[in-house]
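User: Before I run my own analysis I want an independent prediction to cross-check against. Here's the chain; please return only the structure tokens and, at the end, one sentence I can use as a sanity check.
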Amino acid sequence: MTSRRFKTAGCLIGASQPGSQEIGIDGEKLSLMQLGDRLYWENNREVHSMESTIKSGTWIGHLGRGLARRELQFLLSVAQGLTAKQIARSFDVEPGTVVKRISNAMFKLGVHRQTALVAEAMRREIIVGMSESPNPQGPAGESNDGVFIA
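Assistant: Structure tokens:
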């Protein structure tokens, strides 16, 4: 069988055979599982990096930065102050599943507590809090009578 080769962003990418679970990038063999959802095929010719976001409440989470989709979804819920039971109800899964996914995320980010998980995810810009009001001084047209709000 012939090898398929694709060129993108200066990297030579090739699959040893059609339907192969292993590809080579610049001579290094990687399994498709290692590549995860960071890559997608377009017209069977190019590979592009793929990064998407998940919005939950006043938080935005970025996929492709080390956490799986469910881990990120549950992390965003933890950042909103929800318990494992509340998260499980909203996603229609068992509470044990939520606990395991949050535990996996804590392991990946090297922390031992949920508050540290949220802080580390913010530090790495995996999650970002959106401000509820675009104007930090309050709603438009409201006067603060010379009071400085920091």
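Sanity check: Residues 4-49 form one domain.
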